């Protein structure tokens, strides 16, 4: 085989995946830097939380899609922990509930947030594309697309520290979603990394695993692009939430 076609070792494949994160993860995006350095207005933080809810709410749906395609009982046991983390094991528990507490604190009514009526079109398109990717592509590609979790503990640390330092309208309680995520993300990333390396048995499959992670990074990046255009450059598309749209907020609900 030529050098280009040679199967990567496990160490080489992991290094390539980590390189994707170093070059493409959304901690490099200008909106991320603006948010965590205190540069965002209150309304920009509102818009970020409102739009990010759609991503959070669709993660367990994406994970349920992947779960139905895993053939090993042990793999399914490991994967369904992700659904439990987001949906919770009981009413009032889980990551989605903690995210709603953040949007509560930012003045939105729950009905409005859950309706996703005010999210940006690009947010919906990006998240729906991710769910469809995990439904339509191979299982190993679907699992590999979740490997952004390799990089999330660091961005979460930046996010919490930066927001607490710069915004008096957030607190550790309202940012509780993030306090739970680092150990969960580390556990999930370890499983997904081992699965991706172990099930990508040809160079073509390894390349698809790398492309899957690049795709997921693009999904996250495009959401921040949309927020920047709409709420920093003030090009808000028709139908999306607008700052001062009090009918959408908790006080008017």
From TrEMBL:
Thiaminase-2/PQQC domain boundaries: 15-225
First-level EC class: oxidoreductase
Gene Ontology BP annotations: pyrroloquinoline quinone biosynthetic process
Keyword annotations from UniProtKB, A to Z: Oxidoreductase, PQQ biosynthesis
Molecular function in Gene Ontology: pyrroloquinoline-quinone synthase activity
UniProt record similarity statement: Belongs to the PqqC family.
Annotated source species: Methylocella silvestris (strain DSM 15510 / CIP 108128 / LMG 27833 / NCIMB 13906 / BL2)
Name this protein carries in UniProt: Pyrroloquinoline-quinone synthase
NCBIfam families linked: PQQ_syn_pqqC
Gene of this entry: pqqC
Function recorded in the entry: Ring cyclization and eight-electron oxidation of 3a-(2-amino-2-carboxyethyl)-4,5-dioxo-4,5,6,7,8,9-hexahydroquinoline-7,9-dicarboxylic-acid to PQQ.
Tree of life domain: Bacteria
E.C. code: 1.3.3.11
Oxidoreductase is among the record's keywords: yes
Entry annotated with the keyword Lyase: no
Catalysed reactions listed for this entry: 6-(2-amino-2-carboxyethyl)-7,8-dioxo-1,2,3,4,7,8-hexahydroquinoline-2,4-dicarboxylate + 3 O2 = pyrroloquinoline quinone + 2 H2O2 + 2 H2O + H(+)
Pathway: Cofactor biosynthesis; pyrroloquinoline quinone biosynthesis
């Amino acid at each position: 085989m030529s050098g280009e076609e040679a199967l990567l070792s496990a160490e080489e494949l992991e290094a390539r995946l980590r390189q994707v994160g170093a070059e493409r993860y959304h901690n490099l995006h200008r909106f991320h830097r603006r948010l965590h350095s205190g540069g965002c207005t209150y309304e920009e933080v509102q818009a970020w939380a409102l739009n990010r809810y759609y991503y959070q709410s669709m993660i367990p749906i994406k994970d349920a899609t992947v779960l139905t395609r895993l053939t090993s009982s042990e793999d399914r046991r490991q994967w369904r922990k992700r659904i439990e983390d987001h949906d919770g094991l009981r009413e009032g528990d889980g990551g989605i509930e903690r995210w709603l507490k953040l949007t509560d604190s930012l003045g939105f009514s729950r009905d409005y947030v859950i309706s996703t009526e005010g999210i940006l079109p690009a947010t919906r398109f990006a998240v729906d594309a991710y769910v469809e990717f995990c439904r339509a592509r191979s299982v190993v590609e679907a699992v590999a697309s979740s490997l952004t979790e390799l990089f999330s503990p660091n961005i979460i640390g930046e996010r919490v520290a930066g927001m607490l330092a710069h915004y008096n309208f957030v607190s550790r309680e309202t940012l509780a979603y993030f306090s739970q995520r680092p150990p969960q993300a580390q556990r999930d990333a370890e499983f997904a990394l081992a699965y991706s390396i172990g099930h990508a048995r040809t160079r073509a499959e390894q390349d698809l695993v790398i492309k899957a992670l690049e795709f997921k990074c693009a999904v996250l990046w495009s959401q921040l692009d949309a927020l920047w255009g709409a709420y920093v450059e003030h090009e808000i598309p028709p139908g999306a939430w607008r700052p001062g749209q009090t009918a959408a907020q908790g006080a008017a609900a």
